[in-house]
Structures are given as structure tokens and as C-alpha cells.
Specification:
mainly alpha; 2 domains; 0% strand; MTERF_sf
């Protein structure tokens, strides 16, 4: 069985800063069946695919959350990271216009997204592209806006279009008879729309509850959604609770 000390030593040899690296129990469960030499070789090959310590550090963060990544070939991980950069990051500048280090900067940014949401590497590039197009259609926004939304909340790229559609329909229904909410939804910056699309449907149904009681004039949709359930019920004692309305 691979020991934590052996793996940490190997990571330091590969160029990571000599610091303690704590792997979750799920990582160990995943590699119990891998021979120590094989595990070390896989770690080394994956880290060697990325040249800078900053990139390697992000790979380790992603792996600590998603140990299954150890089973991917390094070239596959590189291809997926490049695809994520192409799909989610703004287009690179024209050749010769601030192009120095442009690719490396884009790869680093894409790895930051992967470290935050390693499941992005589970999604086929074609599937991710189709989800982004679907999100454009559902929101009525352009590609740059949708990219900005997903960059803020990467998990939106993992949601089924049907789930996003249901959330948007609920938001639109809540705003249909409330001019302030309609303006909030229409004029929402990417950060606000990202906030509104992340909660579960049960939490978003609060908006219907408040609107139907005519108590929505002073509060924005995002503030109502952001409240904890306890805070919300303190303001609206007759609210039955998230998932019960």
C-alpha cells in the first residue's frame, strides 16, 4: 500500500514546494488496489505533463477532491484542460498581441477551474460545448455572458439543461408580476444570475411564496435566496420550510 509520506516525497521531487499535502480518505480508498510503484509512476507522469509548480499544485488539489483522475492518461488530462480553456475562457488575443505566455496563462486559469470543480474533467468536450450553447438559449444571453456566469460557478456547467431550464422558469414566474424582480432578472450581471441559478429548486420556491403574499416589494430575489432557512423563517414565520412549499 502507498503511504502518505512516500507520495508526498514524490510530489516534492516532482517540483512541488516542500509542504504537507493531506489526501482525503477517499483518495486512499481509490488507490488501495494500486501497487505503490504504479501509483508513484502515475503521479509522476501526471505532474510531469504540467511544467510549472503552480500548475502541478492545482493538479494535486483536483486529485485530492477527485482521486479517479489518477486513472486518466496524462495526455487525456492535458487535452481536457485545453478544451476547458477553449470553451470557458475568453478567446486569446491575436498572434503577436500580448501573446507572450498566453497559452500558459490560459492553462493555469483552466486548471484553477478544474481544481475548484474536478468533475469538469469527466465531461466530454462536445457535451460541455452543447451545455454552454443550451445555457445561451435558455438565458437569451451571448456566449461571453454565459462564459462569465460559468466561470463564477463552475457547477453550472455540470447541471443538466433541464435543471437549468426549470430554475429559470421558476425565476421568470416569480418575476412575472413584480416589476422590481423582472428588472433584476433582466439586468442581472453574470455574478447575480450565477447566484440565482445555483440553489436547489426547493430554495427558489421561496420567491413564489413571498410574491404570492405581496411581501416582495422591499427585497431582491438574490437576498431572499441567500438567506439561510432559519433567517427566512424568522422573517416569514408562516413559511413551511424549503422543500415543503
Amino acid at each position: 500500500m502507498v503511504t502518505a509520506a512516500a507520495l508526498e516525497a514524490e510530489l516534492v521531487k516532482a517540483g512541488l514546494p516542500p509542504k504537507a499535502i493531506t489526501f482525503r480518505a477517499s483518495v486512499w480508498r481509490h488507490i488501495y488496489s494500486i501497487r505503490p510503484a504504479t501509483a508513484v509512476r502515475k503521479f509522476r507522469a501526471l505532474l510531469d505533463a504540467f511544467p510549472s509548480p503552480a500548475e502541478r499544485d492545482l493538479v494535486v488539489k483536483a486529485l485530492s477532491k477527485r482521486p479517479q483522475l489518477l486513472g486518466l492518461k496524462p495526455e487525456t488530462v492535458c487535452q481536457k484542460v485545453e478544451a476547458i480553456a477553449d470553451l470557458l475562457l475568453p478567446p486569446p488575443p491575436p498572434v503577436g498581441v500580448g501573446a507572450g505566455g498566453g497559452r500558459q496563462a490560459r492553462v493555469l486559469r483552466a486548471l484553477q477551474l478544474v481544481a475548484a470543480a474536478p468533475q469538469l474533467l469527466d465531461v466530454r468536450s462536445s457535451t460541455l460545448a452543447s451545455k454552454l450553447v443550451a445555457l445561451q438559449g435558455l438565458t437569451g444571453r451571448d456566449a461571453a455572458y454565459v462564459r462569465a456566469v460559468v466561470l463564477l460557478k463552475q457547477r453550472l456547467a455540470l447541471m443538466a439543461p433541464a435543471t437549468v431550464s426549470a430554475k429559470l422558469r421558476l425565476l421568470q414566474a416569480a418575476a412575472a408580476t413584480n416589476d422590481r424582480w423582472a428588472a433584476e432578472l433582466r439586468d442581472a450581471q453574470p455574478s447575480r444570475l450565477a447566484w440565482l441559478l445555483m440553489p436547489k429548486l426547493d430554495r427558489l420556491r421561496r420567491l413564489l411564496f413571498v410574491d404570492q403574499r405581496g411581501a416582495a416589494l422591499r427585497r431582491s430575489m438574490s437576498s431572499l435566496v441567500r438567506d439561510s432557512e432559519a433567517q427566512f423563517r424568522e422573517r416569514y414565520p408562516d413559511y413551511p420550510g424549503d422543500g415543503r412549499y
